[in-house]
Amino acid sequence: MSNYKKAYIAGGCFWGMEDLFRTQSGIKDTEVGYQGGENDNPTYKYHPGHAEGIELTYDPSETNFREILDYFFRIHNPTTVDQQGNDKGSSYRSAIFYQNNEEKKIAEEMIELVNQSGKWDDKVVTTLEPYSTFWQAEENHQDYLVKNPNGYTCHFLRFEDSYIKN
C-alpha cells in the first residue's frame, strides 16, 4: 500500500463517478468528498465553492494518472459549465485537482486530446485547480450507489474508445 498514489477529480455528482471508478483496474479505494471551496469541514448542506469530488487511491503498477483522466473524460460531460445532467451549480463543475507540475501537464495534454478528438460539440471547460484539502463527505454518501442501487446518477460510459493513442 505504501506505493499507492492518489488522484483528485470532480465531474458532477460524486456518487456516479465513484460507482464507475470503483470497478476500474488499478483503483484500490474511492472516497467521495468536497474540494476547492471556501470553508473548512464542509458538509453536504453547506459547502460553498467546493466541488463534489472523489479521491482515488490507485496502484501505479496497474494504472496511471493519464489513464485515470482518460476514463474521467469518458464518463462525464466535460463541456458543460457547472452542470452534469440535472445537477447545476459550482458543486457539479468538472475539475482536476493537480498535486504537482507533472499532473498539471498531463491534465493539460489530456484536455487537448479530448478537444482534438471531435467527440464533443463544445470545448472542454474542466478547470485545473491546485490540490487543496480533500474533505471526506458524510458516511451516508460513501458508496452511495452500492447502498442504494436504484439511486440517481448522471454518469455512464459515453465513449468506449480511449482518447489515448498507444
Indicate how many domains the architecture comprises: 1
N-to-C CA distance: 28 Å
User: Radius of gyration in whole Å, from Cα?
Assistant: 15 Å
Task: Indicate the percent of residues in helices.
Answer: 10-25%
What is the string of SSEs from the N terminus onward? EHEEHEEEHEEH
* SS content category: alpha+beta
Shape: globular
Overall mean pLDDT: 96
Ranges where pLDDT stays below 50 over 5 or more residues in a row are none
**What would CATH call the architecture?**
2-Layer Sandwich
Largest sheet, in brief, is: 6 strands, mixed
Q: What is CATH's topology name?
A: Peptide Methionine Sulfoxide Reductase, Chain A
Q: Quaternary state, please?
A: single chain
Structural notes for this entry:
With 166 residues, the chain is an alpha+beta fold. The protein contains four helices and eight strands, in the order E-H-E-E-H-E-E-E-H-E-E-H. Strand 4 (83-84) and strand 5 (87-88) form a beta hairpin. The radius of gyration is 15 Å and the shape is globular. The two termini are 28 Å apart. Its EC number is 1.8.4.11.
Task: Explain briefly what this protein structure is.
By secondary structure, the protein is of the alpha+beta class.
Task: Give the helix/strand layout.
Blueprint: E1 5-11, H1 14-21, E2 27-35, E3 51-58, H2 65-75, E4 83-84, E5 87-88, E6 94-98, H3 101-117, E7 127-130, E8 135-136, H4 144-147
